[in-house]
Design brief:
By secondary structure, the chain is α/β, with parallel strands linked by helices. Helices cover about 30% and strands about 15% of the residues. It starts with 10 loop residues before the first strand and ends with a helix.
């Protein structure tokens, strides 16, 4: 790919919760787990991550302070990180209040990581049969387009100085 288009930024996306689960089960094999990312080097320009913590944590308050900074076990300090899909549902394993709390905790949880992009998973809820209740309600607005409290929280974070 780089030979054909050297300016194209190459990345692979990893589902962060599964990395954390694997590390927790096999702490003695963390360096081995990192090989899943390292195998793409040197062509890897950005490390892409997807994160949906609600099925694994009852509330945003339960996320440990190192929830995302734990990635320092797997990536280099200079690696650029792209959170290409971030979400917390407003029904199922979540609520509107929890979505807001998660968004409000993100700046603290992501501090010290070389992040280029944080993209929320869905602008608005969907009603897809292939998705469960969680994925269908991860949007920042309802299916009808009404902004949820999370929309305002995300907008406030986006506008805040970093």
């Amino acid at each position: 790919m780089k030979r054909i288009s050297p300016e194209t930024r190459v990345f692979v996306s990893f589902q962060w919760e599964w990395v954390r689960i694997l590390d927790a089960k096999e702490l003695h094999r963390i360096k081995e787990h990192s090989k899943v990312i390292d195998i793409f080097r040197p062509e890897l320009d950005v490390v892409g991550l997807t994160t949906y913590p609600s099925p694994f944590h009852a509330s945003p308050a339960e996320l440990p302070p190192d929830y995302y900074t734990w990635m320092s076990h797997h990536i280099r300090k200079t690696d650029e990180v792209l959170f290409m899909e971030v979400g917390w549902p407003t029904t199922g394993t979540g609520s509107e209040e929890e979505q807001v709390a998660f968004i409000q905790r993100l700046p603290e949880l992501l501090q010290g990581i070389n992040i280029s992009v944080v993209a929320w998973a869905l602008l608005h809820d969907v009603g897809l049969a292939a998705f469960d209740e969680n994925l269908n309600t991860v949007g920042l607005a309802t299916r009808a387009g009404q902004r949820k409290k999370g929309y305002l929280a995300f907008e406030e974070w986006r506008r805040s100085p970093r």
